[in-house]
Amino acid sequence: MQYITAEEAARRWGVTTRLVQRYCKQGRIAGADKLAGSWRIPEGTVKPDDPRRGGSATEPQALRRRPISSFQNLMPLMSTAYAPGTVAAFASSLAKGTRASIAQAELAYFFGDAERARDVAAPHLKSDDAEARLSACLICAFSNLSLGRINDARFALDGAFGYSNSEWEGVTPPEVAAMATFIGNAASALLHLPAPKTSKHAPDPLPLLPPGLRLFACYIKAHRLYLEGAYEQSYGVVLGAFAMADALYPIPAIYLHLAAVMSLMALRRTDEARQHVLAAWDIARPDGLIQPFGEHHGLLGGMLEAAIKPAWPDDFKRMIAITYRFSAGWRRVHNPQTADDVADNLTTTEFAVCMLAARDWTNTEIAEHMGFSVNRVKECLSNAFRKLGIASRKDLARFMLA
Predict the structure, then answer these.
(1) Which residue in 216, 326, 374, 382 has the fewest CB atoms around it within 10 Å?
(2) What are the residues whose beta carbons fall under 8 Å from the beta carbon of 48, sequence distance 6 or more?
(3) Which domain of life does the protein's organism represent (predicted)?
C-alpha cells in the first residue's frame, strides 16, 4: 500500500496539518499509523467529515441529522478527493466488501470497460444496502447501453427511477430519499429525459449529500440548464461548483469541465471551451478515465477533434470508439421515450459538423475550428443531409442535441 504524509493530506484536503494529525490520533483515518514520529496515511484516503456537523445550532437540521458513516457505498470513487493518477491505488486500498466492489465497478466504467463494470455492479442490483443498490442501478444502466443490452439497461433505469411517491411519506429516511433523488436525476439528465417526479415530501438532496456527490449534483443541474438553452446560467453553476469545492474531486470535476465546454461552445466562446476540455483531460488522463469524453462527444461541438485529437490521437480513437457504443444504446432509450429524432446514422465527425452548422457556424468557421478543409466540411454536410433525408441546415436542429 502507498502512503502520504499528514502534510500532503492537509494540502489535498485544504485543512491544517494539525487537524489531520488530530484525525489520526482520534482513529478517524482508517489505516493511518505513526512511523518515526510522523503519521502516514493510506494514499487516496477521503477527508473525514467534520464532527462539528453534529452539533452546530446554525446548521440545517438535515445536516445535523446525517450520520458520519452515511453515503459510504454510494458511488465512492465519484465521492472521493484523490490525487489524479492514484484512483486505482485508492480503489485497491479499500477493505474487501461492498464499498470496494462498487468502487471497482465505477473504476471499470470510467475507464471504458463497460462489460467489467456491469459484471461487478450487477450482483448489487438486489442488495439490501440502498447505497449499493442505487449505485449498481446507475452503473449497470449506462454500462448496458454501451453493451447494446437495452432491456437490461431499462431494468437498471427502472431501479434508478423506482422510488414511488408513496415511499417518501415519512417512511424513507431522508438520506435514502436524497440518494434516490440524486441517482434518478443523474440517470435522467445523462439520457436527456425528464427528471423523475418526486413527492412534495421528498427532501432537497443537495444539503444531505457529501461534498463530492454535491459537486456531481451541480453538474446535473448545469446539464439540465444546458438542455433548456440557459447556457450562461449553466456555466455559472459550473463556476459556482468549483468555487465551493474544498478539494479536487476528480470525477465530478471532469464532468463539470465538460458541462462548461457544452455551454461555452453554444455561446461560441471557443477559447474558454478549449481550456475546460484540456483541464478535464489533465485530470482524467493520469488514470485513463476516458468514458466521460466518449459520453459527451456529441455535445462538445467538435472540441475533442480540435483539442484532443492532434496531441493524443490514440486516446481520441478510444474516445470515439466509446462514443459509437454508448450513443447507439443511448438513442435506443432516448428516442422512443421522448419521440425525438436524434441522428443515429452519422459518423462522429459528421455529427460534430452538423451540431455547429445547426448553430449557424459558417463552413469556414467549422473548418478552422476542427482543423480540416472547407471542402471536407461541405462533404460532411452533404453526407449528413443525404442520410437524414433533408435539404438544408435549417432542418438539422431536430436531429441534433443542440
Answers:
(1) 382
(2) 23, 28, 29, 68
(3) Bacteria
pTM of the model: 0.79
Q: By CB neighbour count within 10 A (0-12 exposed, 13-18 middle, 19+ buried), where does 18 fall?
A: exposed
CB contact set of 79 (below 8 Å; sequence gap of 6+): 46, 71, 210, 211, 212, 213, 249
User: What is the H or E stretch that residue 35 is in?
Assistant: strand 33-35
Q: How confident is the model at residue 337 (pLDDT cuts 50, 70, 90)?
A: low
Domain boundaries, given as residue ranges, for the chain: 3-51, 86-331
Of the candidates 277, 260, 264, the one whose C-alpha atom is nearest the C-alpha of residue 222 is: 260
Cell of 172: 424513507
Q: Which three cell numbers stand for residue 7?
A: 502534510
Distance CA 144, CA 339 (A): 21
Give 58's pLDDT tier (boundaries 50, 70, 90): very low
pLDDT of amino acid 173 = 65
Class of domain 3-51: mainly alpha
Flag whether pLDDT at 286 surpasses 80.
Answer: yes
Between 298 and 290, residue with greater pLDDT = 290
CATH of 86-331, one of 3.30.300.20, 1.10.1660.10, 1.25.40.10, 3.40.50.720: 1.25.40.10
